[in-house]
Amino acid sequence: MSQTKILLDESEIPTQWYNVIADMPNPPTPPLGPDGKPVGPEALSAIFPDALIEQEVSGQRWIDIPDKVREIYQLWRPSPLYRAHRLEAALGTPARIYYKYEGVSPAGSHKPNTAVAQGYYNQQAGIKRLTTETGAGQWGSSLALVGQMFDIEVRVYMVKVSYEQKPFRRSMMQTWGAEVLASPTDQTEAGRKILAGDPDSPGSLGIAISEAVEEAASRDDTNYSLGSVLNHVLLHQTVIGLEAKKQFEKVGDYPDMVFAPCGGGSNFGGAAFPFFADKASGKEVRLVAVEPASCPSLTRGHYAYDFGDAVGLTPMMKMYTLGHDFVPPGIHAGGLRYHGDSALVSQLYNEGLIEAQAVHQLETFDAGVLFARNEGIIPAPESNHAICAVINEARQCTKTGEAKTLFFNLSGHGHFDMASYDKYFSGELHDYEYPAEAIDAALHNLPEVAEG
Amino acid sequence: MSQTKILLDESEIPTQWYNVIADMPNPPTPPLGPDGKPVGPEALSAIFPDALIEQEVSGQRWIDIPDKVREIYQLWRPSPLYRAHRLEAALGTPARIYYKYEGVSPAGSHKPNTAVAQGYYNQQAGIKRLTTETGAGQWGSSLALVGQMFDIEVRVYMVKVSYEQKPFRRSMMQTWGAEVLASPTDQTEAGRKILAGDPDSPGSLGIAISEAVEEAASRDDTNYSLGSVLNHVLLHQTVIGLEAKKQFEKVGDYPDMVFAPCGGGSNFGGAAFPFFADKASGKEVRLVAVEPASCPSLTRGHYAYDFGDAVGLTPMMKMYTLGHDFVPPGIHAGGLRYHGDSALVSQLYNEGLIEAQAVHQLETFDAGVLFARNEGIIPAPESNHAICAVINEARQCTKTGEAKTLFFNLSGHGHFDMASYDKYFSGELHDYEYPAEAIDAALHNLPEVAEG
Prior knowledge:
The structure is a homodimer. Chain A has a domain at 5-9 and 66-108 and 232-443: Rossmann fold (3-Layer(aba) Sandwich). In chain A, helix 1 (50-57) packs across helix 10 (231-237), helix 10 packs across helix 12 (266-280) and helix 11 (239-251) packs across helix 12. In chain A, the strands form 4 sheets. A 7-stranded mixed β-sheet of chain A has the order 1-4-5-15-10-11-14, with helices on both faces. Chain A contains 18 helices and 15 strands. Chain A is α/β, with parallel strands linked by helices. The longest helix of chain A has 20 residues, at 381-400. Chain A has helices spanning 50-57, 67-73, 85-91, 112-124, 138-149, 160-165, 167-175, 189-197, 205-218, 231-237, 239-251, 266-280, 297-300, 343-350, 361-375, 381-400, 418-425, 436-443, and strands at 5-6, 16-18, 62-64, 81-83, 96-101, 129-134, 153-159, 179-183, 222-224, 257-261, 286-292, 302-307, 316-321, 355-359, 405-410. The radius of gyration of chain A is 21 Å and the shape is globular.
């Protein structure tokens, strides 16, 4: 019988994270403050520990993973690399399809890879509380999971409409001991201001970020934690691609193409950056970020300085953006609804070193269901984006007869997303293509920045 | 760093199931028909394929696992054996705690171990459709998962109240292509009869079984499939204990005590029977079935012939039973609500070869939350029963200083049971202890059987 899962021993968990900045042809663009000048590390120290700020700006290629972090990784890592024999047979494709399954983490996605590291460095810095925001709950539950492990209280500002509609992610966070508040709350200036204007506000990710950051900035024992976008978050996620490379070595194969879903960028960065290291040394490998057509920042946005949050409180980052007040339509089920993208992913895309594809919602669910019926695992809607792009490529191989090696990151399971599958089966999900004017209108609001 | 997960290669998936009947000191008691005479294999052939009927009555110690079944097992097997370092530290116990994690299957529990085998043998017998019943949905989703893989249509009669209250298990089954009906339906004689009497009937497991069996018995291309209780189901589950024994060998340890939740018995049989083989050869190992105090068949029931279903359609089996019309209180959240128990488990218990413990609901959730906060995984409420018993034993070890090796089957995750955790956190769950008269009353209804 041919091998299905390529496993590694716990001793093979990477001992260092890979920093893509070391291999980028140009230095990363700096974040800018409201005055248009680069924001120094010191401005971030009210909400982040020094170790993470150092990682955010480091140009060092390899950064040591602390033993304590690797020890907690052992609860689920190394994650398995699967050869998708049954999916290949169903497609009748000559392509070889592999996927890294990150849904084996207790929180069910790749997010704990960075949550553990952030918990560790905050504990080292003497921090007793962490705040964060969460929408659907993937990130909030990951931080809740590790809070316990580092004796750190975790407070999650959960967008009120999600808090009410998705009670099970909330229960998960409470099981791990986190405090979960429906945002807007009356506990922060930002929340009270919103509630004064609209006592029934359903909340938004932008409001929840404001509440979490405000609390962290105003308390000495409290820091703030973010689950994507920033350089140090992508750094921590590189354990995914680093393990995958070892696993490919074991079976004597190597991907022609690497696919990962792309919202804020940590999923894609984690899976693809370690392969970028090879590409930078001349190896041929195509790296494909897959985003939703309903939130097409890379494929239809502008490459420009914009705010990271909806209300303009964060530093500005140079990134592909749809405008910081862009709101994707409510018909979209997945968690890839960020208006912008990681600065690192954006820069690599702008320089033509990585590729991007936008896929429509219904085809992602078609792909996810086909996958589930053959491989068993029911994927998260975000992961379905990568699966969709891989299946399209594998079908192309069927036509051309090319036996390409395709690899994707199956970033999480869909156990907490069955309501989206329900909507798909009952015909309530739709596709949405923005008219060019809608994109242009959103981009009118980009901040003016005099670039040096 | 000390090892957390003890893994096996796919080549180490067992090639044979272990049949405990070969090592039992006495032959198993036969099932009896309505006339009080033993039911022959031929009576079962309307709803089961011959291969499964042979396994049901076989006395052979080892039964080959077909290659095709092992190939599908590879999608998640071998499952990891964990050493619970963090839980041990939290308890300050000298005990060594290990758990086998069966939640890695796509359906999230141990149930697919037998679903795959049943799908295979039914396909071999030319069967195109399988019917089954499901309450909370663990079993129905496992059969749905494998239906696709053997080109077998699966129809699940899901108890109507669960169908309405637990939509996500239903969506899971639909994702895997199964047809899910809210039972009672108007498609069977049994269902129509119930609906005629009560158009708003919430359904029951007994009614759903009647519908599934009726349909299977009346159609040549259709068989029926059961997820626990029967000998062949427990047989298929022995891959759990067989793998665990190999994993213990790798780390040079061996359990003093084996714990598993016990409802119908497949969870316990699967984990414990392979260790019983050693016990039968003189090795010291205690095997502990853990049941809910709200449905205490082993610890408070009678050992007697009784029907397997609520309405008396099935053959009678000699087992520990609370009476076939016993209905546990609705306050109980777990899935261990069966009035009886596997005949094999019952016989071994009656002969003093295995032990049983009953635990209360609130302490099981206390245990599950403590486990989740240390080990990460959020367990299914059924699994919490075993965890509770293990934690009690480990705390005992703390007092006595004994460094016992404790092993339990973590039979599934709780991702589809968060509503129960919610109720626990909000104080809506309660314990329930039956007064002796209540148990006696239920037992008054046992069928009269003249035993030979």
